[in-house]
Design a protein that fits this description.
By secondary structure, the protein is α/β, with parallel strands linked by helices. The chain folds into 2 domains: about 5-125 and about 300-329, Quinone Oxidoreductase, Chain A, domain 1, CATH 3.90.180.10; about 145-265, Rossmann fold (3-Layer(aba) Sandwich), CATH 3.40.50.720. It has 10 helices and 16 strands. The strands form 3 sheets. Strands 3, 5, 6, 7, 8, 15 and 16 form a 7-stranded mixed sheet that branches. A 6-stranded parallel sheet has the order 11-10-9-12-13-14, with helices on both faces. The chain starts with 5 loop residues before the first strand and ends with a strand. GO terms for molecular function: mRNA 3'-UTR AU-rich region binding; NADPH binding; quinone reductase (NADPH) activity; zinc ion binding. Pfam families: ADH_N (PF08240), ADH_zinc_N (PF00107).
Length: about 325
């Protein structure tokens, strides 16, 4: 196959709303030592992409966008031995730039994809699936009998987490906005679903747990839910805040944690849990295993042409999507 010297990619030169994203022609260099050249077949859309675009998580500008993709290795740089031309790989880590037809990428951050998992599923499952893996298996290791509150249970991470948590034997309370999303969370296996738009969800959690509270809250929503979630925990419970879909979480005084029952608070990131090659492979292989076995079904409910990524961002931020969103080059 002839490798092009130019490709198209979504780039941005200033932070802001979706309108700052541009579909541009860019040069494609030969891979440097330790890199591979990937022809992307599908690109994952994640909330962290909107944080990069808005400047909440700053990138050096101008920059590419997107962390997640699946594609075919078309060239390898010097020193690359674990991957070869023709391998199908997936990835979900920096450097940003997954929103591209072709790209160069560090070989040690890509993993092979088994034939049983198609391109769109692979692109949709890596970041959200590995996020779920480290949250429920390593940040707070959920065990059978635990009570779990998972916010945005019909979203990308939530959809995966509900299924995986039920497999682990947890009792899952999910929140979602609106009847349709609540029905989706229930269909995924959530034991109890609360419409946060129509109900006092803190009160409902206390009622559902007979006043005891849950062992752990997983919150990717942020500003709107994090502080009230403290009142959903039992003594020595864990509040795991891992996203900012509604905005950054306000400052929390350490004394508040003791007043709420000696609870634990952590703000983990995927990068910190996949910082070594061994950790990356552990997480990725765990996700691929539960997907290949059918324990977790990845719902790619929305696809957009890659050049229309700005509209995909608008829909994601407007809470118009459920499950996973994939951009197609």
């Amino acid at each position: 196959m002839t490798i092009p010297t130019e490709t198209h990619a979504i780039r941005f030169a200033q932070t802001g709303g979706p309108e700052v994203m541009r579909w541009e022609k860019v040069k494609l260099e030969a891979p440097k030592p330790g890199e591979i050249t990937i022809e992307n077949k599908a690109c994952g859309l994640n909330f962290i992409d909107t944080y990069h675009r808005s400047g909440l998580y700053p990138l050096a500008l101008p920059s590419g966008l997107g962390l997640e993709g699946c594609g075919i290795v078309r060239a390898v740089g010097d020193g690359v031995s674990a991957l070869k031309v023709g391998d199908r790989v997936a990835y979900c880590a920096a450097p940003a730039g997954a929103y591209a037809e072709w790209r160069n990428y560090p070989a040690d951050k890509a993993v092979k994809v088994p034939d049983a998992i198609d391109d769109k599923t692979a692109a949709a499952m890596m970041l959200q699936g590995m996020t779920t893996e480290y949250l429920i298996r390593r940040t707070y290791p959920v065990k059978a009998g635990d009570w779990v509150l998972f916010h945005a249970a019909a979203g990308g991470v939530g959809s995966i987490a509900v299924q995986w948590l039920k497999h682990l034997g947890a009792t899952v309370i999910g929140t979602a906005g609106g009847a349709e999303k609540c029905a989706k969370a229930k269909a995924l296996g959530a034991d109890h679903v609360i419409d946060y738009r129509a109900e006092d969800w803190v009160k409902r959690v206390r009622e559902i747990t007979d006043g005891k509270g849950v062992h752990v809250v997983y919150d990717g929503v942020g500003k709107d839910t994090c502080i009230p979630s403290m009142d959903c925990l039992r003594p020595r419970g864990y509040l795991v805040t891992f996203g900012n879909a509604s905005g950054p979480v306000p400052a929390i005084e350490p004394l508040t944690l003791s007043q709420k029952g000696s609870i634990f608070l952590t703000r983990p990131t995927l990068a910190a849990y996949t910082g070594t090659r061994a950790e990356l492979e552990l997480s990725a292989h765990a996700v691929m295993d539960v997907v290949a076995k059918g324990i977790v079904r990845i719902a790619v409910n929305h696809t957009y042409p890659l050049k229309d990524a700005a509209q995909a961002h608008r829909d994601l931020e407007g809470r118009k999507t459920t499950g996973s969103v994939v951009l197609l080059p």
